[in-house]
Structure formats: C-alpha cells, structure tokens
Amino acid sequence: MFGSGRTLGSFKVGDKVTVGAPSDRPLYHHGSHGTVVTIGTKRVHVRMDRAAFDSHDGEVANFLPGDLEPGHVGTPRNTDRMNDAFTALKLAAGTDLVAVATDAGIITAEQGERIKAAWADHLRR
Questions:
Q1: CB-based burial of residue 62 (10 Å sphere; 0-12 exposed, 13-18 middle, 19+ buried)?
Q2: Which of 37, 43, 78, 110 is least surrounded by Cβ atoms within 10 Å, i.e. has the fewest?
Q3: Is 60 left (phi over 0), alpha (psi -120 to 50) or beta?
Q4: Whether 49 contacts 57, CB under 8 Å
Q5: Is residue 72 classed exposed, middle or buried when 0-12, 13-18 and 19+ CB atoms within 10 A define those classes?
Q6: Residue 67 and residue 69: Cα distance in Å, rounded?
Q7: Residue among 99, 8, 9 nearest 62 (CA)
Q8: Angle of the 78-103 helix axis to the 109-124 helix axis, nearest 10
Q9: pLDDT tens, residue by residue, 34-47
C-alpha cells in the first residue's frame, strides 16, 4: 500500500512478509508469503515461500517497502482462497436448508444441529 509508513529500515533479512497489492509490479504476487533475502537501496528483495500461484514458489522479487506487510497474513494461494469461498458458500447453503426444514417442522432443532455438524465435517475432508 502506498504511503504505509514502512521504510527499508522496517525490514531485516529473514523477516517473514506478505505482499500487498504491489504499487508498481504485476499483481500476481498479491497475497504471497515470503522471506526477506536482501535489502537494496530502494527495494526489499523477497523469496516467495508460498506464492499466490505455486509456479512462483522460490522466485525472488523486489518490492517497495510499502507493498509489504510484516508477517505471513491470510491465505496466500489463489486456489486456496477460491476453495475457501466455495466452502463458505456451501456451509451457508446447508445452514439455510436446515433452518427451512426446522421452521417447517420437518426436523427438530437437535437434528438440524447434527446435520450442520455432519455437513461441516464433510466439507473439511
């Protein structure tokens, strides 16, 4: 993020970082987790430990300090983010279905809770 207040001095070699939306680089690193390997005169050089796309794992890219967040934050892989979104959608649909069935008197509240637990367990596998 531009104007974040982070400077080159905010980082040291070995720091774990997360790439934000790069201000002057391709966006395919957005969300990637990496480790600072060197610090240049204007940029921080980061090895992608778990890039947004697995084809970029191990790649070293350089970023302005304001484009980096300290620590590994969030889910780096775009495929994992999509899977998380679909799982949340499936959980919501299951919860809504149980609520409708409970309200209609087709199942009891206890049965509904057991169905929701079984559905959540199924989605975790």
A1: middle
A2: 110
A3: beta
A4: yes
A5: middle
A6: 7
A7: 8
A8: 160
A9: 999 999 999 999 99
Which residues lie closer than 8 Å to 64 by C-beta, 6 or more apart? 2, 22, 23, 24, 42, 43, 44
Q: State pLDDT tens for residues 5-29.
A: 789 999 999 999 999 988 887 888 9
What is the spatial distance between Cα 60 and Cα 89, in angstroms, rounded to a whole number?
35
Q: In angstroms, rounded to a whole number, what is the distance separating the alpha carbons of residues 45 and 33? A: 13
pTM: 0.65
CA dihedral 120, 121, 122, 124 (to 10 degrees): 90
Angstrom distances, CA of residue 46 to CA of 10, 15, 49, 65: 14, 9, 9, 11
First CA to last CA distance, the chain: 36
Strands (E) across the chain are located at: 16-19, 33-39, 44-50, 60-63, 68-70
If phi > 0 it is left, if psi is from -120 to 50 it is alpha, else beta; for residue 73 that is beta
CA 69 – CA 64 distance, rounded (Å): 11
